[in-house]
Design goal:
The protein is an alpha+beta fold. It has helices spanning about 55-65, 95-135, 145-160, 180-185, 220-235, 240-250, 260-265, 290-305, 310-330, 335-345, and strands at about 25-30, 35-40, 45-50, 70-75, 75-80, 85-90, 165, 175, 185-190, 195-200, 210-215, 280. The radius of gyration is 23 Å and the shape is globular.
Length: about 350
């Protein structure tokens, strides 16, 4: 049974109410279509479950939802909160805009609030340090220069910090993507429609001093990577109005994947460099509603394939998510701690 978010690799938590599916603190289910999701409380993404036990779990969720009095419902979607703290989202015959409001509204809204809090906190911290320096006489006269220096340090930190960790095809290591990598992520035209071009740190500098290597992915690989990278490109989130605008963009296409092909052909990079050298569209330069629509499309297409019987793809992705989470956790453990944990695991 999987316990890690497919997207941010955070623990999904547990519940004691659903006997056949004790994973997650918020579960969403659609009894008519036989779908069950675990909603990650960190990133608010919906993890579709490929488990055989989902039918029994859905029946349990339906019963628990009906039995609780603490619930709100529209004609198609309802939310119930159980005494243990588990939340249930019941999906009926919801239309796409209404479903999007529930499914994506929390994701993009929570990201937006977190982004505002982080950026506002950073400004307040820099301002506080500057004010303290002036008040104590440490800083006298050169306040503006100090402000610029502290702001430059914060900018450097934001540029260097890890944004997403991936296990890429053909790589035996976890690849770390930072802001500069995300800014060079592009959609490119290809013979079969579109491909995703990703930049990663070069194993070694070339004679021209280039620090990036570009990798191109197509098909299932491109779709999986897009689903992990797009939320980090859209890290600032969006208000509800922009989410609805994104739904309208997505509704223009019968097949969600058509939006990737269309955008790869229509957009052009706005950066001064010529990287990559062929026809490309840097995702960072797209309008916000387009970027949101691309993220929605990548998730819906992955779920569509999973529900059509390609559950092996979803299971492989989830196993990889748990592998990344495990490696990331152990990177910061001292060797003595790891040895002690292994000793406790093998103890009778």
């Amino acid at each position: 049974m999987y316990s890690t978010c497919l997207f941010c690799h955070a623990a999904l938590g547990a519940n004691e109410m659903v006997e056949h599916f004790p994973v997650g603190r918020r579960l969403a289910f659609d009894a008519s279509k036989g779908r069950l999701w675990v909603v990650c409380r960190k990133c608010e993404r919906w993890n579709l479950t490929p488990l055989e036990e989902r039918w029994e779990a859905i029946e349990e969720c339906e019963r628990l939802f009906s039995d609780t009095r603490l619930r709100v419902s529209t004609g198609n979607i309802g939310l119930a909160k159980l005494r243990e703290g588990l939340e249930l989202v019941r999906i009926g015959s919801a239309l796409r805009p209404e479903m999007a409001a529930w499914r994506y509204g929390d994701q993009f809204g929570k990201r937006r609030m977190r982004h505002l809090a982080i950026t506002g906190g950073a400004i307040a911290a820099v301002g506080g340090l500057l004010g303290l320096g002036v008040a104590t006489g440490i800083i006298a006269g050169g306040g503006w220069g100090v402000w610029q220096g502290l702001n430059a340090l914060n900018t450097a930190y934001q540029n260097r910090r890890s944004r997403v960790k991936l296990v890429l095809p053909g790589e035996e290591r976890i690849v770390v993507l930072r802001k500069s990598h995300l800014e060079h992520t592009a959609l490119v035209t290809s013979e079969d429609g579109w491909a995703l071009t990703l930049s990663i740190d070069a194993a070694k500098r070339s004679f021209r001093g280039e620090k990036f290597e570009s990798r191109e992915y197509r098909g299932d690989e491109a779709l999986r990577i897009a689903g992990q990278v797009l939320p980090k490109i859209n890290i600032a989130g969006a208000p509800k109005a922009k989410v609805q605008d994104a739904v309208k963009v997505l509704e223009e296409y019968a097949d969600p994947m058509q939006i990737f092909q269309k955008e790869a052909r229509s957009m052009r990079p706005k950066f001064g460099s010529a990287w990559p050298k062929h026809s490309a569209a840097y995702i960072k330069t797209f309008p916000l509603e387009t970027r949101l629509a691309l993220e929605m499309a990548s998730h819906e297409e992955q779920e569509r394939r999973a529900m059509e019987g390609e559950l092996a793809l979803l299971e492989a992705a989830w196993q990889q998510a748990e592998e990344v989470a495990k490696i990331a956790d152990e990177m910061f453990l001292p060797e003595s701690t790891a040895e002690r944990l292994e000793e406790l695991r093998t103890r009778d």
